[in-house]
Amino acid sequence: MKGTPVVTAFRSNEELAELKKWFYDFDDTRDHRKCAIGKVKALLTRGRLPHGIEATSILTSVLLRDDADDRNEDSNVIQLAYTMALIRFVNGLLDPFQQSNYAIPMQLLAKQLNLPTFFVELRHMGTHEALPSLDTLRIATKDALTWLYDNYWCQIENKSERDVDSATDVYAEVVTFRVTYNERLINAFSVYENLKTFKRLRKDNLEKPIFSDNNKEQDMSKVRKCVNDLAEVCKSDSDLLADLLIRKYYLIYSQEKLKTKGIKYNPLLEKLYRPLLQELGINLIESLYIKIVKSVEGKELGEINCRVYKKLGFSPMLLEGEIAQLIEWLPFLIKYILSQPFLEENFTKIQVSNRRQLFRFMYHSIVTMCSKDDSLLVKLLQLVKDAADEDLGSDLLDEINDRYDESAKRANKKQFELPPSLDEILAGDTEKRKLVEEDSMATNKKHKSSSGNEQKVYFMEPHENWIPTPFGMPV
Hints:
Blueprint: H1 13-24, H2 33-44, H3 51-67, H4 75-94, H5 106-112, H6 118-128, H7 134-164, H8 172-188, H9 191-203, H10 217-247, H11 255-261, H12 267-280, H13 282-297, H14 303-312, H15 320-339, H16 355-369, H17 374-387, H18 394-416, H19 422-450
Helix pairs in contact: 1-2, 1-7, 2-3, 3-4, 3-7, 4-6, 4-7, 8-14, 9-10, 10-13, 13-15, 13-16, 15-17, 16-17, 17-18
């Protein structure tokens, strides 16, 4: 048996496939929508149904009532029915995601579900303002049913197909293997518990070294155990720990938390975790650097990685504010990588065999990553210049220095070049107008000289049959 058995109001996915056909496959000769609504009501007597099924039934019921064209029916009643159905549709989708201590804006939740935000606006109007017009409500209801078809009913059918023939999913076995392996590694070394313990103990001693003699012996032993366990994870899979630190929001804050705190970056995070990264060593820092570079360059995750991250509870997509925080970690990572004695076995991921190749790799990765940000490029290239020496060769040093000088000039030009003032803008417009007027006058003169007889033009010419009539008198 796969997974844990779940008690449902329906017997199988085939029953849902039949409901889908009744709700959406209809024409003038065949319409089973009323049967579908009755079926949903019967299923609700057995237990709870997924929101997609219940919402489809309610929205379809309102449409059928409106199509009945009962002339005695008050239009306000139809408006209220449409509005209430749409409110329940939106609330049922978004309310389960309101799980934080602070209310998340419904527009943000809607975007995460790929739900058009005008549904949220209609919900707000129906709850707090005047009711939307009937035409708007009819269109919105049909759009809601279309959205449910694409995002719920089609997924039900796909799930049924996967159950019948799981061999068509070529990635399933790989994803399952990687998820199982990663979960075993995380649980074997209690990664989450160790990170939590380290954070709690480190917060009280931010200004002291991680293993200071002034710390309590009991606390030091706990920190030592945390570091040793995490070091074992690094030996087995440093990429896993790097992904976990980034995508489970240890090294950075989530976008939501940034908005709550009203900040763009918290430097205390670097103070908190930098000693841990130094203790865990070059393999983890190399993995972190590579992953941050890929995120800044905007490289998308492959399908396998995306599915693995979702199953592990990692964030599969990093937002702009989260990537900006990762950039703040780059100076520390670059300094650490370039300051360590070179050992080829430490750099198997980037495949360099000597120190010169390492510097060239770092140089090219920084230039590619900062292709649209000269200020950041200057800042990071300065770190490379500081760590470089004559052993790297004059050609590489000259290349680094030349790129640094070019980027610095562009950055300074952008920084000190002031935008045009209002007077300059207006003066420029005046000069343009003068040129246009002079051109038009010149063309008029040419036209007059070419045509010998001038033709007079009247705005209001007299009409021979026109008779003045007082206002209000019949003509």
